[in-house]
């Protein structure tokens, strides 16, 4: 008849002690070289039975954990179990793979941010704005967001994706060991071993995910171009860390320690991830308190949106009282990122207002400041959802007293009902125009100053019309106001340039007393032709090198000029040509045919000198 299997109840105490001593690594070379839980399952169960029997014998005589700890057999057993616990953890430590999990995580998460999936970089030519100290602000608008999904083998909230960090068989063994260590008073040792091994695993996953050990000071000393890359990497990695890595570590702690003692699973979890979590969030904190400048706005908004999207997951993963500090740190960083974004927007407005360059751009073309500002606010409009939540007040510089010559006036009642962001964008356009109005005064030629304003305001209008989001925020009413301004500038240009030229083609002053047919003063007529020739030649010479970059606007202005100039010249020539041709050297006075003028007008605003136009025609 078979003997019954050994259990804690029927295993003799002496036999239990022999089993414990046989696996004493301090006394046996074989015990040092072999691990119980790597071998036969029967041997594992027998060892656990021996530990249970010794614990039962001690508990029947004493309820003190201190008694357990001084018992030699218990001490040997606990040392052995601690080694076994560590070995199981280490042998199953596999870091999270960066590529697969990063891609999976992002694919599963639809972005609630208004930031674009892809954003083109702004042209280098326009990629600056000055502050009052004439320091160049540069920014890179590059930003990307990928898509991801992780199949959870356990449970899934809307975004948490837990995975099995350790096989279920090994989890069972770890729980068996943890129960016995904790019941014998070795809770602290168990937590320390667990935390040490699992923290190393988390650190290894951090390295795989590209998360560096950087202090706040280290981050703030990096160049912004370096930080942009690190921010993109951080956003991707943070999603994996919170939603997969930290969540899975929490789950593992629950599987091993839940129900064994009060909050032991949470203690082990915090022992494992508190340091890495602080390391992770320190990077975002360093960005949030770094020196503000316009080029940082979009990456700060990316960080803000990423952290905002992660906050429910952070609250879910770090839901215990002992992890309050992590939740508080994340919430404070989010608040500081919001404040940084508001501050940068305000400082950008002031930088645009105070940009001090006084050297006129050649040919009255679009000023680099105009390109920069309009490209910048086009990118700002991509973040309209976020910024409308963050902005709670009107532009500070727009509320100054009316009549301040250094600040434009703006009637906010005219745009009442607009979103907070729309008001700020309109204000930026207002101060940009105010700055441009100051810059146009540096042109010595009044016609060129009007052309400069026309070019720049037309560019503003085109940028607004070209962006559906920007046009929606700016509104058609204000867009019509801008359109009226560039058309008025075009009218002012024509008046400043062509009134004098057309004045030469009037009849007044050419007639002497008597009939019209015989009362023309040839000397006055010759002077009039000479004046016209000189004035048109000068306009042609100078305005060929002026530039209207927009081909449609350039053609429209040429047509408008031709509609006034050509009929007037044709009529004048028709009335008075015979008087000149009947005299000596008519070619000295009639230098242009109607066709010549039509050709010359086509040379205007190309940014090309007259000599090149002539060379091109001759070829």
UniProtKB/TrEMBL annotation:
<feature type="region of interest" description="Disordered">
    <location>
        <begin position="100"/>
        <end position="121"/>
    </location>
</feature>
<dbReference type="GO" id="GO:0000145">
    <property type="term" value="C:exocyst"/>
</dbReference>
<dbReference type="GO" id="GO:0015031">
    <property type="term" value="P:protein transport"/>
</dbReference>
<comment type="function">
    <text>Component of the exocyst complex.</text>
</comment>
<dbReference type="Pfam" id="PF03081">
    <property type="entry name" value="Exo70_C"/>
</dbReference>
<keyword id="KW-0653">Protein transport</keyword>
<comment type="similarity">
    <text>Belongs to the EXO70 family.</text>
</comment>
<feature type="domain" description="Exocyst complex subunit Exo70 C-terminal">
    <location>
        <begin position="233"/>
        <end position="599"/>
    </location>
</feature>
<feature type="compositionally biased region" description="Polar residues">
    <location>
        <begin position="107"/>
        <end position="116"/>
    </location>
</feature>
<dbReference type="InterPro" id="IPR016159">
    <property type="entry name" value="Cullin_repeat-like_dom_sf"/>
</dbReference>
<dbReference type="InterPro" id="IPR004140">
    <property type="entry name" value="Exo70"/>
</dbReference>
<dbReference type="GO" id="GO:0005546">
    <property type="term" value="F:phosphatidylinositol-4,5-bisphosphate binding"/>
</dbReference>
<dbReference type="GO" id="GO:0006887">
    <property type="term" value="P:exocytosis"/>
</dbReference>
<dbReference type="InterPro" id="IPR046364">
    <property type="entry name" value="Exo70_C"/>
</dbReference>
<keyword id="KW-0813">Transport</keyword>
<dbReference type="Pfam" id="PF20669">
    <property type="entry name" value="Exo70_N"/>
</dbReference>
<keyword id="KW-0268">Exocytosis</keyword>
<protein>
    <recommendedName>
        <fullName>Exocyst subunit Exo70 family protein</fullName>
    </recommendedName>
</protein>
């Amino acid at each position: 008849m078979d003997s019954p299997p050994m259990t804690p109840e029927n295993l003799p105490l002496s036999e239990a002690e022999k089993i414990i001593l046989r696996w004493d690594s301090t006394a046996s070379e074989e015990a040092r070289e072999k691990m119980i839980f790597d071998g036969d399952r029967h041997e594992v169960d027998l060892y656990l039975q021996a530990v249970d029997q010794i614990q039962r014998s001690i508990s029947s005589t004493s309820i003190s954990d201190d008694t357990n700890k001084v018992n030699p057999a218990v001490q040997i057993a606990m040392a052995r179990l601690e080694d076994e616990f560590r070995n199981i953890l280490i042998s199953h430590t596999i870091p999270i793979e960066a590529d697969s999990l990063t891609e999976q995580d992002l694919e599963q998460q639809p972005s609630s941010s208004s930031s674009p999936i892809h954003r083109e970089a702004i042209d280098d030519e326009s990629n600056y704005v000055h502050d009052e100290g004439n320091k160049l602000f540069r920014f890179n608008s590059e930003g990307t967001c990928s898509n991801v999904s992780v199949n959870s083998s356990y449970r899934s909230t809307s975004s948490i994706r837990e995975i099995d960090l350790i096989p279920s068989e090994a989890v069972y063994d770890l729980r068996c060991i943890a129960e016995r260590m904790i019941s014998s008073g070795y809770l602290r040792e168990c937590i320390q071993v667990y935390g040490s091994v699992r923290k190393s695993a988390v650190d290894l996953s951090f390295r795989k995910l590209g998360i560096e050990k950087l202090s706040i000071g280290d981050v703030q000393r990096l160049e912004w171009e370096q930080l942009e890359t690190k921010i993109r990497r951080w956003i991707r990695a943070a999603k994996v860390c919170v939603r997969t890595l930290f969540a899975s570590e929490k789950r593992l702690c629950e599987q091993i320690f839940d129900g064994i003692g009060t909050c032991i699973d949470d203690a082990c979890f915090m022992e494992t991830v508190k340091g890495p979590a602080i390391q992770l969030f320190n990077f975002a904190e360093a960005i949030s308190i770094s020196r503000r400048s316009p080029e940082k706005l979009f990456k700060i908004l990316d960080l803000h949106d990423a952290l905002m999207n992660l906050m429910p997951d952070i609250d879910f993963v770090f839901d215990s009282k002992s992890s309050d500090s992590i939740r508080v740190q994340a919430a404070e960083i989010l608040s500081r990122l919001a404040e940084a974004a508001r501050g940068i927007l305000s400082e950008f407005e002031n930088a645009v207002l105070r940009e001090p360059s006084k050297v006129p751009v050649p040919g009255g073309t679009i000023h680099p400041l105009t390109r920069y500002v309009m490209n910048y606010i086009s990118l700002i409009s991509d973040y309209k959802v976020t910024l409308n939540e963050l902005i709670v007040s009107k532009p500070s510089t727009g509320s100054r007293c009316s009549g301040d010559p250094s600040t434009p006036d703006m009637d906010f009642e005219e745009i009442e009902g607009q979103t907070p962001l729309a008001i700020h964008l309109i204000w930026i356009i207002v101060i940009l125009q105010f700055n441009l109005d100051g810059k146009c005064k540096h042109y010595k030629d009044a016609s060129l100053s009007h052309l400069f304003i026309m070019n720049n305001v037309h560019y503003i209008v085109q940028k607004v019309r070209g962006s559906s989001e920007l046009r929606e925020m700016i509104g058609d009413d204000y867009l019509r106001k801008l359109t009226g301004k560039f058309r008025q500038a075009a009218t002012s240009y024509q008046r400043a340039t062509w009134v004098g030229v057309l004045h030469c083609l009037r009849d007044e002053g050419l007639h002497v007393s008597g009939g019209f047919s015989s009362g023309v003063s040839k000397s006055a007529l010759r002077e009039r032709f000479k004046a016209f020739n000189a004035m048109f030649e000068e306009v042609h010479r100078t305005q060929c090198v002026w530039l209207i970059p927009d081909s449609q606007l350039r053609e429209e202005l040429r047509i408008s000029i031709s509609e006034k100039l050509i009929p007037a010249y044709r009529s004048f020539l028709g009335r008075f040509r015979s008087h000149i041709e009947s005299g000596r050297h008519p070619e000295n006075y009639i230098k242009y045919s109607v066709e010549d003028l039509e050709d010359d007008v086509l040379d205007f605003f190309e940014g090309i000198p007259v000599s090149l136009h002539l060379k091109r025609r001759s070829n």
